[in-house]
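Table S4 entry, Branched-chain amino acid ABC transporter permease.
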Amino acid sequence: MDTAGNTSPTTSPWRLGAKDALPLLGGYIPVAISFGLISVQAGFSALESTLISALIYAGASQFLFIAMVASGAPLWLVVLMTLLINARHVVYGPNLAPYLPPSRYWPWLMHGLTDQIFALAHSRLPLLAEKDRLGWYTAAALVAWFSWIAGTALGAVAGAQITQRWPLLGDVMPFALPALFLVLLAPRFTSTVWSLTLVCTISVAMLLKLLGISNGAIPLAALAGVAMFYLLQARVNARIKNGVKAHG
């Protein structure tokens, strides 16, 4: 890396993207194995479970999807609830858009935008030269996507045998993804604005969960966090502006 944060000429953005995404595998693969196992137990075949991860690729929404389908819920309700949980992507897109160079591939590549890839991209893309951003994002997204698919296939085919042989894994795997979120969020607590935003988001999510609004907790908490962030940022910007005027 040079002093401006851009990749050096000898550094491949594809290699850097893959390297940055590797830590995500520690959270993705265990949860994907859990999904594959649960999906098969819900009546889906190993192939169907793997295709769900490849085509829907939506984490929590996939667990909700198989639970609702297995319970006989109408298709329109399954689609509606899946879209509701993924409504946070309405916030993700505009936040990444300023850093995305023009390319006809972005509509396809956005299939690989997950919470963790967003967190990585939001911190990494501004540091990269514009010509390197497409390669970095593509590599990072593909590593995460293929690890999720592979974990699902492994869970669907051999998940039962794995948890029977090592029962502790069955208890630990569901906590892998929350632990990964904590690792990604921890650096943000160095900023007052981000700290207050995250505390607000977490508090709203927990409150909604306690009130029994489980399915709406994630999108509503995300919206509350967005509102808090922009209110606090507007206040900071106003103070800076007033300070400039006072010294002008």
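The CA atoms of residues 41 and 209 lie 26 Å apart.
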